[in-house]
Every structure is written in C-alpha cells, then in structure tokens.
Amino acid sequence: MTIDWGTELDLLTGLLVVVGLVGVVVQVLPGALLVAGAVVLWGVLQGTGLGWGVAIAAVVLTAVAQVVKYLLAGRHLQRGGVPNRTLVLGAVAGVVGFFVIPVVGLFLFFVAGVYAAERVRLRDHATAWRSTVRALQATGLTILVELAGAMLVVGAWVVGLLAR
Predict the structure, then answer these.
(1) pLDDT tens, residue by residue, 31-61
(2) What are the pLDDT digits (tens) for 150-164?
(3) Residue 22: how many CB atoms within 10 A of its CB?
C-alpha cells in the first residue's frame, strides 16, 4: 500500500499542527507560528486557489490573533498598574528558569521574577502579589487569544481538506 504525496503532506501538516497547539498552551515553542507555518506550507504545496486561500487565511488569522493578544494583555496590565519592565524582568527570569529547571522553571521563574520586580517597586508584599496575579491573568489572556487564533487556522485547514 502506497501513500500518495497528498496524504503524506496532510499527515505531516496534522503532526505540525498538533505540536504547534501544544506549543501555544505550554509556551515553550512559538506554537501559533508553527500552526500557521504548517498550514501555509500545506496551502502553497496544494498549488490551487483553495490552497492559496487557506494559506492567506492562516496568515491573516495568526496576525490578527497576535495583535489582539498584545492589545488585550497591555490593557489588562495597564488597568492593574503593572509596568512593562516588570514583564520583561519576569520573561528574562523565565528564560533563565527554563534552563535551570527545564520546562517547569519557565513558569516558576517568571512568577518569581514578576513578584520580585513588583516587590522592589512597590515595597509591599500584598500589593506586589496582586500585581503578580494581574500579570499571570494577562499571560493567561494571551494564551487563550493565541489558542483561539490557532484553532481558527486549524478550522480553515480542515475546511480546505474537506473541500479539495
């Protein structure tokens, strides 16, 4: 039994999409970009109007989700009075943590970095912790928006698969 290139491409795209979706949730890989890249590659290799349409939809949906996630997170943080530099310090701490304690360290060090930055800035445990929770909520919002965008891209791909 032989598998034609179309089926191989579909399976490879599906695998990359699943890995990308996991990456969106776990935040270790650039998941949304992986999903979009896989679907764009699939669409381009189809070489049809439908394939190109799916590829364009993937790019547009991913771009919109990326913009929306930053706008929502920024507004959420601004309402809570959390400065951007706090998130930068948390992100740097998270990257260091990823290498100190693989995968889990990313989250733990991010939280610790945000809390430490806010504790130094605010000089109060309760207020610093509220800011840390606010930053975690904003991070959660970005993950949900990115996941929603990636799922819309997957939906466009599935429609393309069924319509071909």
Answers:
(1) 999 999 999 999 999 989 999 999 999 999 9
(2) 999 999 999 999 998
(3) 13
The H or E element that residue 3 is part of is none
Phi-psi region of 101 (alpha: psi -120 to 50; beta: other; left: phi over 0): beta
According to DSSP, residue 126 is labeled H
Rg (alpha carbons) of the chain, rounded to whole number: 19
**Looking at residue 29, what is its pLDDT?**
83
The structure's pTM equals: 0.83
Q: Report the amino acid identity of residue 74.
A: G
Q: Are 69 and 141 in contact (CB under 8 A)?
A: yes
DSSP state of 48: S
The torsion angle over the Cα atoms of residues 109, 111, 115 and 116, rounded to 10 degrees, is 10
